[in-house]
């Protein structure tokens, strides 16, 4: 117990005086939107460990493996940010998110008997997936005041369905356009 207390005392100044931030974050992509809360922890040399929690709302329409895919779910992510990379206020980041999603899907099937006419029938279901979403991106920080800032950002990555319960649903490349409103303390 004594070692834990000494360790906590050693890191208290780091936490109190580092340029940490909390941010409200929104990312949009062609098939959905991800609102969330992000926390950046300064580890020195313009480097940050970052974490977020959020909710991934998706309406893939026919972008997936079915005629229509819609749903969402909560998730979290961790990452690394390097700021002041090439020019002041420009940062780059890598992040990995896990999303726990329920996707409602619909497929139309043509059914033909031995005698025409044929007809369309909808088949529906729900698939539970766990999605791994690694991304890389850039951010540009726009100061609003001493502590407030806006960070427009652009990320590219890949959605990988690492666990699927039900019929397969879409996965693949993803481009995310985001905006963060943050407070540095």
Tell me about this structure:
By secondary structure, the protein is mainly beta. Helix content is 9%, strand content 70%. The chain has a single domain (2-184), classed as Beta Barrel (Porin). It has one helix and nine strands. An eight-stranded antiparallel beta barrel has the order 1-2-3-4-5-6-8-9. The chain is elongated.
Uncertain segments:
4-17
Q: Using the coordinates above, name the CATH class.
A: Mainly Beta
Query: In whole angstroms, how far apart are the ends?
Result: 29 Å
Indicate the overall shape: elongated
Give the second-level CATH assignment, the architecture. Beta Barrel
Helix content: under 10%
- Report the structural category: mainly beta
Helix count, per DSSP? Answer: 1
Rounded average pLDDT: 90
Strand order of the largest sheet: 1-2-3-4-5-6-8-9
CATH topology: Porin
**Tally of separate domains:** 1
Q: N-to-C SSE series?
A: HEEEEEEEEE
Portion in strands: over 45%
Total DSSP E strands: 9
Task: Summarize the biggest pleated sheet.
Answer: 8 strands, antiparallel, barrel
Radius of gyration equals 22 Å
Main features:
1 helix; mainly beta; single chain; about 180 residues; Porin; 9 strands
Please provide a brief summary of the model.
This protein is mainly beta and about 180 residues long.
SSE layout and pairing:
Layout: H1 2-17, E1 21-29, E2 32-44, E3 47-61, E4 68-82, E5 90-111, E6 119-140, E7 142-143, E8 148-165, E9 172-184
Antiparallel strand pairs: 1-2, 1-9, 2-3, 3-4, 4-5, 5-6, 6-8, 7-8, 8-9
């Amino acid at each position: 117990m004594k070692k834990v207390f000494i360790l906590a005392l050693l890191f208290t100044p780091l936490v109190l005086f580092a340029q940490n931030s909390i941010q409200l974050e929104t990312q949009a992509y062609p098939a959905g939107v991800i609102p969330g809360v992000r926390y950046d922890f300064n580890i020195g040399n313009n480097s940050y460990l970052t974490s977020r929690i959020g909710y991934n709302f998706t309406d893939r329409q026919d972008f997936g493996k079915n005629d229509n895919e819609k749903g969402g779910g909560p998730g979290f992510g961790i990452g690394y940010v390097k700021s002041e990379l090439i020019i002041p206020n420009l940062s780059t980041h890598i992040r990995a998110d896990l999303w726990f999603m329920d996707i409602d899907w619909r497929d139309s099937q043509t059914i033909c008997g031995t005698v025409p006419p044929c007809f369309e029938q909808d088949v529906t279901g729900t698939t539970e997936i766990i999605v791994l979403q690694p991304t890389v991106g850039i951010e540009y920080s726009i100061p609003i005041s001493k502590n407030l800032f806006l960070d427009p950002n652009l990320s590219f990555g890949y959605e990988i369905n690492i666990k699927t319960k039900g019929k397969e649903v879409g996965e693949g490349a993803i481009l995310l356009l985001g905006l963060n409103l943050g407070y540095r303390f």
